[in-house]
Protein 1
Amino acid sequence: MIRLERVTKMYRTSTRPALDRVSVEVGKGEFVFLIGPSGSGKSTFLRLLLREDVPTRGKIWVTDLDVAKLPRRKVPRLRQRIGVVFQDFRLLPNKTVGENVAFALEVIGKSPSTIRKVVPEVLELVGLEGKADRMPHELSGGEQQRVAIARAFVNRPLVLLADEPTGNLDPDTSQDIMLLLERINRTGTTVVMATHDHSIVDSMRRRVVELDMGRVVRDEAHAVYGVGR
Amino acid sequence: MRTDFVVREVATGLRRNVTMTAAMVLTTAISLLMVGTGLLAVKTIDATEAIYSDRLEIRVALTQDVSTADTDCTQPICAGLRSTLENSPLVAGVTYENQQEAYERFQELFAGQSVAELARPQSLPATLRVKLVDQDGSTEAGAAAVKQAMENQVGVRTVIDQRDVVAKLFDFLGGVRNVTFALALVQAVAALMLISNTVQVSAYTRRTEVGVMRLVGATRWYTQLPFLVEAVITGVVGAVLAGVGLLVGKVAFIDSLLAGIAQNGVIPPVTLADVLTVSAYLVPIGAVIAGITGYVTLRLYVKV
Ligand SMILES: Nc1ncnc2c1ncn2[C@@H]1O[C@H](COP(=O)(O)OP(=O)(O)O)[C@@H](O)[C@H]1O
Ligand SMILES: [Mg+2]
């Protein structure tokens, strides 16, 4: 589903590579934690998958798309196969919960009838039934992240990328969000989640890819965050 | 493409910053108004030139003695000059105006003024009026040939090329046109920068939306079209205002300013049809320029 082959990313303003010869393969339906201290290259990893940036060297495949070589006009095709959520939710503040989710479908040209059907479904899936008409500022952080997940998932992407989705949330709420991501993973969606939250990683016992200074220092199934950290 | 989506986004975009939108519309309107004025000036100048190039003649004024002695150009000196002229392939026709006719025309021209009373038929020269053949829109060669043939001939006092006189008027009109176009250009640059700036601001205020659109895989059309449509609407509204401005300008100023001379056929009037034609040109010009500016701005400055 996702394959990186000796991917190196050098930012022009920095001497040390943000990613250094990273090779990782993620199969369909897998759940992978991408861990490592701040600045280790987790966000860069996800940005490259989304073609927000291109690698300096190496190859990246997402499904059958050669991401680095993808022509600009085909980038939307890639992004429609990937859902993303961030630490800061990125909801549109002047749209309701329902409109926020519908917006993601509208801008890729889905018909109003489809939108009317699938938006309530996905809101129910994320546990926000009955809150479609709320504004984002009327929701708790955990609820806002659920809206963001609903928006990322509403088009049924093959891959869900999450960049520290629990970074702004308290531990209990974080656990709820993890349960939701697990549920999404069980529908067959590949999930890659960047985090440096020990307790979440330890409680889930999933595959862990650990980055340090842009290098993969560990890639282990059913792992914990690490000893002595 | 969902049109309701674009319509909604454009409406919010235009409403979001009303002062900016208004400034953009006005600057565009003013620059297009100047372009329109320039185009009308060109049209008028061309029409004027057409009128005059028909009428313009070379006048060969005859000396005092020949003028007095010969009333119908039958005596040898005048007849000789005349046949020389008529034999030239560059000359379309020659007419003779004797002192009496010259006097009558002079009276008509200066009717009511004191010079008219002072003039006497015998103080005015008789003239051979030479019409030139138009060669590829120019009578330049003919004029030069006639001047060369006539100057310093016995019986010739001076050779007057009317085109020299009118050339000054055309120079002046041409200057007006150039100044108008120069101002229009400066205005247009200002309008372009304003449109470009507004598109940037617009894109900046909508960066969250655009960011979401990109992430969920919206195509460039979806992310950019609202901005382009906004810019084009501005251009079109500006052009329509410019058209209204031209119309008002015609009715309020040009008509009264040119009333006298236009009626006399000195210069052609600026017609309503002219103004409407030019206004109709301004709309696509405004739309295309604004659209291109918006597109280039998005390409250069905005990651969408
Ligand atoms: N846009 C950028 N320009 C320059 N350097 C960057 C940019 N983004 C990230 N970096 C650098 O790349 C390295 C990895 O950053 P990042 O991928 O954000 O790490 P993480 O998400 O693990 O904290 C850091 O050293 C960071 O300073
Ligand atoms: Mg990060």
Protein 2
Amino acid sequence: MSVLQQALENGKFGVTAEMAPPKGCDFSEQMAAAELLKGKVHAINVTDMQSACLKASSIGLCVKLKLAGLEPIIQMTGRDRSRMAIMGDMLAAASFGIDTMLALTGDHTMVGDCKASKPVYDLDSVGILRMLSTMEATGKDCGGNDLASTPTFYKGAAVTPVYEPQILQINKLRQKVDAGARYIQTQGIFDLDALKRFMDEVYKAGIKAHIMAGIIPLKTAGMAKYMNENVPGIAVPQDMIDRLAAAAAEGKEKGVKGLPARLGIEMAAEMIAKIKAEGLCDGVHIMAIGAEKNVPTILEKAGVEI
Amino acid sequence: MIITQKKPLEELLGMLDGAKTVALVGCGSCATACATGGEKEIADLSKVLEQHGMKVVATAMSEYCCMHLKTRTILKPVIAANPDAVVAMSCGDGVQVIAQYCKCPVYPSNNTMFLGESVKLGLFEEACHLCGDCVLGKTGGICPISRCAKSLVNGPCGGSRNGKCEVNPENPCAWIEIYNKLVELGQEYKIGITRDDKGYEKVSYPRTINIRGDKK
Ligand code: SF4
Ligand code: SF4
């Protein structure tokens, strides 16, 4: 059984971290960062060309992580693959013991770095989940033909809590869960009240899934401002931005580098600790965006062990 | 209607390289509405081609270039003029119909862009991808296949900002428009319906439809 599934279904506070394959074929940096995460997280999400920017495929790093004794979550978007390609990749992943996946519709090629690529979208996130659930239930492939052997996956999906009108995301979340998603990772959360309001809506809608709050450790005030302006569903409150700016000013005055990033780690740890203490969510998903080596520190400061 | 856009003149001249006599064929429907193949555009292009040393030996206008019967008839004087090349000022289908009846090469003066509507004079918007299994009855009369940049059928992605599409912020998010329209219609419940996966069998091309009740 999937390690993440075991944790979440036994009522443990789930912890996942996110990692991107390299833009190239040398995975050593990723593998080194992953070693630091061993024993600290239940699983590591491997992104599938996030922001539609070309990277090595998710499956490659997933296999490497698995072989190194780590638990990968294979992210699968509908942007670049038809249903046949998705199912084929999932069968191949299963052959390496990869048993946890996250289905995403995927950012459009037009927002990425290879705009000439054909956006496929044969299936969206709901379609991918439904296809895999049907496969698991019937032992048949996407064309309705018998498979010689059939894997099962612990399936997840994503949600954007800060969205107007929110009912549309709640509705889509319901469809994802109906289609087989058992755990949900949210877009980066910075405002716990907004998270609470979202969770209330999830309960009211009667949606049953393990929700993991997305945590993005901020590095600078500029990064926060940039994300507010450019990343859908991200809303960093002004006071957080102000604190980061103040830390930068303090660092400049004292001639110390990295104060804002350190504050970002503190703020992320604080949020995780609160989410856990107040039982707001069933776990957290940390998106460190290249600073995966900080994840153990964040978890330690938050007092979270797996 | 089929929305067309004029090709750059250099591209057309490149195709016509070596032709001394040309004939122009316009289209009285979509291409006229798009100002890419009406009477005025035929006159304009005639002048330009003459300036480039070609002789326009015939012009013709089909009410609908895409209808063989009509087009075959209007092509008679064009064929009789025996030009080195024909310029078809229609959509891509019109070009192909005309090409079937001409012995000389037929070149397109337009790029065929999309199936859409004339919102107002000179403004055209894409509105249908000919998906073969129309879902408009469930989506408040707004097409998610052509108006959502990802052709999503189960509701929006998470990428919309301020009601705009993540792919092109000049476009509204189709799913937010669908939602607003369904609320207006009192059909809000339809937003929660997971749509059947219609797949792509129906768009395997080229397709033929025959309602004649006899053979082709
Ligand atoms: S759903 Fe959209 S693409 Fe399909 S037939 Fe209807 S309008 Fe056209
Ligand atoms: S923002 Fe809206 S219209 Fe654009 S791709 Fe996402 S769901 Fe489709």
